[in-house]
Amino acid sequence: MSEREPVGSIADEAAKLFAAASTWAQDHPAVCGFCPFCQLVAALRGERPDLGAKLAQAVEIAGDAARAVAQLFAVSAAEPPPPPEESNVRVQIIDIA
After folding, report:
1. Is 19 among the domain residues?
2. Residue 42 in contact with residue 26, Cβ under 8 Å?
3. Nearest to 54 by CA among 66, 43, 65
């Protein structure tokens, strides 16, 4: 039985995966160009600048949305809730039985 390489941190494993995918993408041609995997390979190679531009736009929109949500939570956490109002409202109890 072969000895396995020790598992590293998530960042180390992600770097290894990215390096392996980059090497594979440089050595193998994109087959169909229609499936998401082949489009990703083409984008990594720089063959699809339009896809890169759309991906950058999507990342920008996601960042704007995340920033808006973070600001919403920051504002709601910074403002204390208003104190309950004390009023002299009279309540009339009506018996409907």
Report:
1. yes
2. no
3. 43
**Residue 74 placed within a domain:** yes
Torsion, Cα of 41, 43, 48, 51 (10° steps): 120
Identify whether residues 18 and 40 lie together within a single domain.
Answer: yes
What is the tally of structural domains in the chain?
Answer: 2
pLDDT single digits (tens) 13-33: 888 888 887 776 676 665 666
Would the pTM count as exceeding 0.85? no
**Residue 42 and residue 58 in one domain:** no
Q: How many Å is the Cα radius of gyration of the chain?
A: 28
